What does this fold into?
Amino acid sequence: MLGRTYDAQNCSAARTLEIVGERWSLLIIRDALFRGMSRYSQFERSLGIAPNILASRLARFVEAGLMKMSPVSEESEVSEYLLTEMGKELGAVVVALTAWGDRWAAPKGAPVIYEHLGCGGTVSPVIKCRACSRELKSEDLVVRPGPGTRQKSPMVN
Amino acid sequence: MLGRTYDAQNCSAARTLEIVGERWSLLIIRDALFRGMSRYSQFERSLGIAPNILASRLARFVEAGLMKMSPVSEESEVSEYLLTEMGKELGAVVVALTAWGDRWAAPKGAPVIYEHLGCGGTVSPVIKCRACSRELKSEDLVVRPGPGTRQKSPMVN
It folds into this structure.
């Protein structure tokens, strides 16, 4: 019932949450993206997640195209889980979540700092206008129907 | 059990997901931020969400400081739910989720377009280096311990 109701939300944020909205999912992606993890045992140790949940999340990522399985070496039967381009592009989501949490839910200060590998600068998520290059706040944005809007419903987003 | 395990994750992304990770939560925030909604009845109509779930989410937002309740007018007993600064700053998370979904989970094209109110340009989420102003990809980032890192665990993030 819940799932079907979500399906009715013609919204890319809702669809993304459909794929990675469960919290463990984004934590697995975070570890793969920014902590160099690729093996089942690494995720298990890092997250303390129940084996059946971890296995089902990884299988779902492979099925959805976020990760692909690959043997660790030619001789090995152990596989690792490597992020695809689709998976790697979730970096902006993880960085945006982290920045918000650093500001509003980290009373002892940021647990980790994301740095630019090239110059050592700290990084921030920014909403940028592609036309005028300004950095925008939420109140600077308006929403208009895109090409994927359904015509029949007046409340689509 | 699950909750306690999450608590062990000293990570701002995990803490943010603790507050708004449940999918309905971010859809409510989206409607408040970008569709001008503030009343219980508006969220209910927009999302088709069960009344008890919607009521508990809104109450949780007020408790967490993401929203505040305010009477619609001096004479009215009806309240509206207004985003605080803390809530408004989730805009970058919603835009990042939407951009990813537009690219990877919207076969018919983006359901909505976010535009810059000032100039009509389309917007993108960007990870920006605060030192050199470059726009970065996930692979351009490294993670180092921040001030809120616990010392005792070798695997904190």
Observations:
- The CA atoms of residues 6 and 18 of chain A lie 8 Å apart.
- Chain A touches chain B through 95 residues (CB under 8 Å).
- Strands of chain A lie at 67-71, 79-83, 112-116, 123-129, 135-136, 141-145.
